[in-house]
Amino acid sequence: MGVVQEKFGVTKTGEEIFLFTLKNKNGVEAKITNFGAALVSLFVPDKDGKMEDVVLGFDTAEGYFDNPSFFGVTIGPSANRIAGAAFELNGKKYQIAVNDGENNLHSDMDNGYHKRAWTAVAGENDLTLTLEGKDGEMGFPGNKKITMVYSLSEDNGLKLKYHATSDADTIINLTNHTYFNLAGHKSGSIEGQFLHLYAGKYTHVLPGAIPTGEIKSVAGTPLDFTQMKMIGKEIGADFEQLKLVQGYDHNFVVDGYDGTMRQIAEAADEKSGRRMKVFSDLPGVQFYAGNCISPQSGKDGAHYEPRTGFCLETHYYPDNIHHPNFPQAIFGPGKDYNAETIYQFV
């Protein structure tokens, strides 16, 4: 149906920022900005066909300049946490930003890919976003070329396809940090919505949400979402793993991971009838229940606060560089990064 482009703002350095709208025959509509490669809005029907925007975000590009909760953005070059904000690769030590206690979170708060104006090229019903990362930038080695393609299918699937190259071995662990609220982004708490994760194990964490290296079973714990369960049912349980991160903020180990696309999750809101299936070819998914969303104003006069949106961030496990037993997110000459995730509404 063609991609509609409109002005959305200007960066602090004077680069124009645009908003692009993808729409399918069913009226499903995705709005994406090239600033941070962010998903700004996603309108999907309820059981009666009523359209509602189901992702948290801002009305203007300026809202994304601060964006402490990372609404909608694409994170890179390394999503999630790296212990000690340092790593060793091929015998050389690299220091990166200390920005989450003594650790690193999402590469760099000010210079990460979520704070960049990407180059955008619209297709028939897709949007290709690209950027380049220089060797040594944010402390990471390698000159990198990153490509991300958003596309919207006629069966209501929003696909996120990633490709990256580097001229030196480096960490590339991209993710998208969209917060979903299937009742609509202005509807309040997501604790009454339901989630099923195709993941019987998780990566156990220490204070600071840093993995210990242990992969543990979810059986008999509040982390068990192997069957559809209300998000809020056990979120306040007396369980150390929940207390460490104020609720759910854990990496779940995808069942049967072999690098091929598979369903990894399903979420549902019973009142509206909206259901979302998630497909990915990545080994992990970070389920974050929005425990630490700072109270703030969002789109359309919405008020966001803790647990008004949830994230299902597909990626390699956090801190995998320090745990050889985890799938490794090391890419470079002869080994490109490729990944796909689909959020499908049924």
Account of the 3D structure:
- It is built from two helices and 29 strands.
- The longest helix is centred in the last third of the chain and has 6 residues, at 240-245.
- Strands 11-12-13-14-29-23-22-17-20 form a nine-stranded antiparallel beta sheet, with no helix packed on it. Strands 1-2-3-4-5 form a five-stranded antiparallel beta sheet, with no helix packed on it. A five-stranded antiparallel beta sheet has the order 19-18-21-24-27.
- The two termini are 21 Å apart.
- It is 3% helix and 42% strand.
- It has helices spanning 63-66, 240-245, and strands at residues 4-10, 16-23, 29-33, 38-45, 51-53, 74-75, 81-82, 86-89, 92-95, 104-105, 119-122, 126-133, 144-152, 157-166, 170-171, 175-176, 194-197, 201-206, 210-217, 229-230, 249-253, 262-269, 274-280, 284-288, 296-297, 303-304, 311-315, 330-331, 337-345.
- The chain is mainly β.
